[in-house]
Amino acid sequence: MQNMKRFPFIIRTSKTIYYVTVTYDGSYISANNHFLDRFDCHGLIDGSLRFKDTIIKDDWPQVERVLDLCKAEPGKTFVITVRKPLSSGNLVHTSWEFVADETTNEIVSIGFDISLRVAYSKKVAEFDKRINQIVDGITDGLYILDKDWKFSLVNQAFLKMVGKSRELLIGKCIWDILPDDKNSSYSNFYREAVRSGEAQKFEDYRHNLNSWFWIAAYPTVDGLLVFFKDITERKIERSLLIESKNKLSAVLNSTLESHMLVSPDYRIVSSIKQLTPIPAIYTARK
In the chain, how many domains are there? Predict the structure, then answer.
């Protein structure tokens, strides 16, 4: 067909590459057989059919924009992705490279079918969505770091703790989001987990959050999986209990009498002062 003789042989016979030439207004000049067969265009490439006539209407603006760019900058390649309908009604997702040839006043374009890639990307997105739904259902904090210490997955509990969105965290380094401070030692445990290949479980205080956390860091092939739980209330309760016990001990120590603290199951928890020994006279009588 017209202009096909100057196409490289591999292009003319390719079963994977679409090759077309169009005018500056987008009208078809020529096309290889793979394009003609795939989109049932035999007998239609006569100068009256335009490129945008063979794609869905929503993608027209992309084509018009790239044709204008090609005309303004000959020799420069521009890439777009468009959806082309088949006679069956199905859509084919395609990627195209357009470049204007000043010597012929034509725009040369090479296209590829990327439908499988698009379908795969959709499945990956759906899988990621399900994973996020699962981890968001976990009430404790959870996140995954890659080998560069960047967040690759975070759950809602962690987002709530740091007050940031998932989009702002994914791909960011943890040291920038949760920097070390003099009261925190979590980074040492994380690095030890990665170095040794063994899980690290510890308690850590975050000064900027004024909170205590129980943390478990598990090394993985790709980085580190981290679970954490806010234990601030438990720490406060324990501190208050110790404080109350100390106060009680101080009060009892200030008296001249002897005392014992007995648990509900009659075990002696502690005793204050030496109990007065039983007089010998009573022992002798016995």
Answer: 3
Amino acid at 137: G
| 104 and 145 in a common domain | no
Whether pTM exceeds 0.85 = no
Best CA proximity match to 4, nearest among 36, 50, 48, 27: 36
CA distance 141 to 12: 57
Same domain assignment for residues 210 and 255 = no
Domain hosting residue 68, numbered range: 4-113
19 with 60, same domain: the answer is: yes
Q: Are residues 142 and 205 in the same domain?
A: yes
In a domain, 118, yes or no: no
CB < 8 Å & 24+ apart, contacts of 76-79: 76/100
Q: Encode pLDDT of 190-214 as tens digits.
A: 999 999 999 999 998 877 778 888 9
Residue 95, domain member (yes or no): yes
